[in-house]
Specification:
Order of helices and strands: HHHHH
Structural class: mainly alpha
Distance between the termini: 14 Å
Shape: rod-shaped
Helix content: over 70%
Strand content: under 5%
Number of strands: 0
Number of helices: 5
Length: 138
């Protein structure tokens, strides 16, 4: 259902954002001295390596990229959340029980029992309305 898909996308973006935040925190710790005995990564003598150590400039560049990714994920979360709020507002504004049942059933993916609880009707009444308005298949 559309509403469920949007909510799952929000969850996915939240997970990504938290992953970037964790990576940024780890990078900050290592840049500020890291665990005792921490030494910069040295690629000297490694196959396919360019030699040398990872520089502070490279770490700061990576930090900047992580900040950008965190901001992008937050923008996506905010955008999807506003779509969900807008959709919920529109559903509540629908006139007539039939329109509300169709919207909650077909767009939000609610069960008939959930719709009955949400709208304050008995489940039998909601079943009658639902049967009167079968799902449209493409």
């Amino acid at each position: 259902m559309i509403g469920d898909d949007l909510e799952k996308q929000v969850e996915l973006h939240e997970l990504r954002k938290n992953m970037y935040i964790t990576e940024k925190e780890y990078l900050l710790k290592t840049m500020m001295g890291g665990p005792q005995g921490y030494k910069p990564i040295n690629y000297e003598g490694m196959p396919h390596g360019s030699g040398g150590t990872v520089t502070l400039d490279r770490d700061w560049e990576h930090m900047r990229k992580l900040d950008n990714m965190i901001n992008l994920e937050q923008w996506a979360i905010d955008s999807l959340t506003s779509q969900i709020v807008g959709m919920n507002t529109k559903i509540k504004e629908l006139k007539g029980l039939d329109a509300q049942v169709i919207a909650l059933r077909d767009f939000k993916g609610n069960t008939l029992q959930e719709i009955a609880d949400l709208l304050g009707y008995g489940v039998d009444r909601i079943k009658q309305v639902s049967c009167r308005n079968p799902r449209q298949t493409a």
